[in-house]
Write a structure and sequence with these properties.
binds cytidine-5'-monophosphate; 10 helices; 28% strand; globular; Alpha-Beta Plaits
């Protein structure tokens, strides 16, 4: 393995997010459909002497043990039976996925580290162990070890791959603020408790249906109403995406990002350009199938490629 390895960490949107109750630890039982999209961060791993180091292009992202990449490194190091703190590699994150946007950036970065670091450290970690470490890091991490369209049950960490939805153009708008996932679930609980018993969606008799059929005109997110109540602009952006021709629009995860699904890339491009002219952080992208995700997020050896180019030039 070369001394420099680059990995693209793609974002996700939630095509559907239903809250079905809480488990004993207070975590919420979810039925969610994840979908990978073309927006990505880039992580560059370098073999270097000294302690593990992390850098990020955004200064509002912690670069210590609070960062999931750091925690992924520490967990892999311990799994490999190595003593002390992780060492011998530095990681630079070029961030394009805003933090606290509901697009899974931190989790995607952690999954990228779980796949790249064993190669750089020349340790062999079984896929099952990688999945377990991922689930312990955060509920969204296991999805990023799979990609494409997938159903997330339990905390959202029990991943069942689904048939990829047809390739769709997507516009993502990120408001200039983030939403804390823990807070969004807290607002959801407070509103649920205020509803009369018996009328709550997760209390209806019988097992909750988990059959999911992609309907390009209908997206559900149970967290959206309580987040929109605190941040009405999220609802306004959703309406604007629909007015610009989206076949459906919704908040992603616990917010703050909003996305719209469009029938074609030119229409999506026009909508994103219009929103960008109004000052919004808006971008047109598209869904990635599981196969595309696997191919495009594979660690690539940067130094090796440079050497090959030099050889060809000489
Ligand atoms: O798993 P993750 O660290 O991303 O979750 C952040 C917070 O969101 C948790 O501490 C918890 O409060 C809340 N959460 C939840 N139910 C889930 C996922 C997250 O209550 N299924």
């Amino acid at each position: 393995m070369a001394g420099v390895v680059r990995v693209r960490a793609f974002a996700k949107i939630n095509l559907s997010l239903k809250v079905r109750g809480r488990d004993r630890s207070g975590y919420h039982e979810l039925q969610t459909v994840f979908q990978t999209v073309g927006l990505s961060d880039t992580l560059t791993f370098r073999i270097e002497r000294g302690p593990f180091r992390l850098a990020c292009s955004r200064d509002d992202v912690p670069v210590d043990e609070r960062n999931l990449v750091w925690r992924a490194a520490a967990a892999l190091w311990a799994t490999a039976g190595r003593a002390g703190s992780p060492a011998g590699v530095s990681v630079a994150i070029r961030k394009r996925i805003p933090p606290q946007s509901g697009l899974g950036g931190g989790s995607a970065n952690a999954a990228a580290a779980l796949l790249a670091l064993p190669k750089l450290w020349r340790i062999s970690v079984p896929a099952r162990t990688i999945e377990e470490i991922g689930a312990a890091l955060g509920a969204d991490v296991p999805f990023f070890l799979c990609g494409g369209t997938a159903l997330g049950l339990g905390r959202g960490d029990q991943i069942h791959p689904l048939a990829d939805i047809p390739r769709s153009a997507v516009v993502i708008v990120c408001p200039p603020f983030g939403v804390s996932t823990a807070e969004a679930f807290g607002w959801f609980d407070a509103e649920r408790e205020a509803q009369p018993a018996g009328s709550r969606a997760d209390e209806r008799p019988g097992p909750a249906p988990i059959i999911w059929r992609y309907d390009a005109s209908h997206l559900v997110n149970d967290l959206e109403p309580c987040v929109v109540k605190r941040y009405p602009v999220i609802g306004e952006l959703k309406r604007q995406l629909l007015a610009e021709g989206a076949s459906a629009a919704a908040m992603s995860g616990s917010g703050s990002a909003v996305f719209g699904v469009f029938s074609g890339s030119s229409r999506a491009g026009r909508a994103a350009a219009l929103l960008a002219r109004e000052g919004w952080d808006a971008l047109a992208t598209r869904t990635l199938t599981r196969r595309e995700y696997a191919a495009r997020s594979r660690p690539t050896e940067v130094a090796g490629r440079r050497r090959a180019l030099r050889r060809r030039a000489g």
